[in-house]
Specification:
This is AbrB/MazE/SpoVT family DNA-binding domain-containing protein. Keywords: DNA-binding. GO terms for molecular function: DNA binding; toxin sequestering activity. InterPro entries: Antitox_PemI-like (IPR039052), SpoVT-AbrB_dom (IPR007159), SpoVT-AbrB_sf (IPR037914). The structure is a single chain. The strands form three sheets. A two-stranded antiparallel ribbon has the order 1-2. The protein has a two-stranded antiparallel ribbon with strand order 3-4. Strands 5-6 form a two-stranded antiparallel sheet. With 90 residues, it is α+β, with helices and mostly antiparallel strands. The longest helix has 6 residues. It has two helices and six strands. Helix content is 13%, strand content 31%. The termini are far apart. The chain has a domain of 48 residues: Pemi-like Protein 1, Chain: D (Ribbon), CATH 2.10.260.
Length: 90
């Protein structure tokens, strides 16, 4: 395995290995940790004329996950926008 470091870029070579009927590439631990990839993580595989790109799938948080982050410290007061001017529900 060879590494190449340039400003803001980390690249390396690794070997492709047989995995069942497919081929697999190992992701080094420090790269996996940097992108929060663990066993079972989903990766998006893109192919273009230049090569193969793997990116972690970032899922949107659920409403429940967002609501769980509300605390007394980050909760704001009710905002009064004035009286109704159209067909708003009261």
């Amino acid at each position: 395995m060879k590494t190449n470091k340039r400003k803001g870029v980390f690249s390396m070579t690794t070997k492709v290995q047989k995995w069942g009927n497919s081929l697999g590439v190992r992701i080094p631990q420090r790269v996996a940790e940097r992108f929060d990839i663990e066993n079972g993580s989903e990766l998006e595989l893109s192919v273009d004329e230049k090569g193969i790109i793997l990116k972690p799938v970032v899922e949107d948080p659920t409403l429940e996950e967002l609501l769980d982050q509300i605390t007394e410290d980050n909760r704001h007061e009710e905002i009064d926008f004035g009286k109704s001017e159209g067909n708003e529900l009261l």
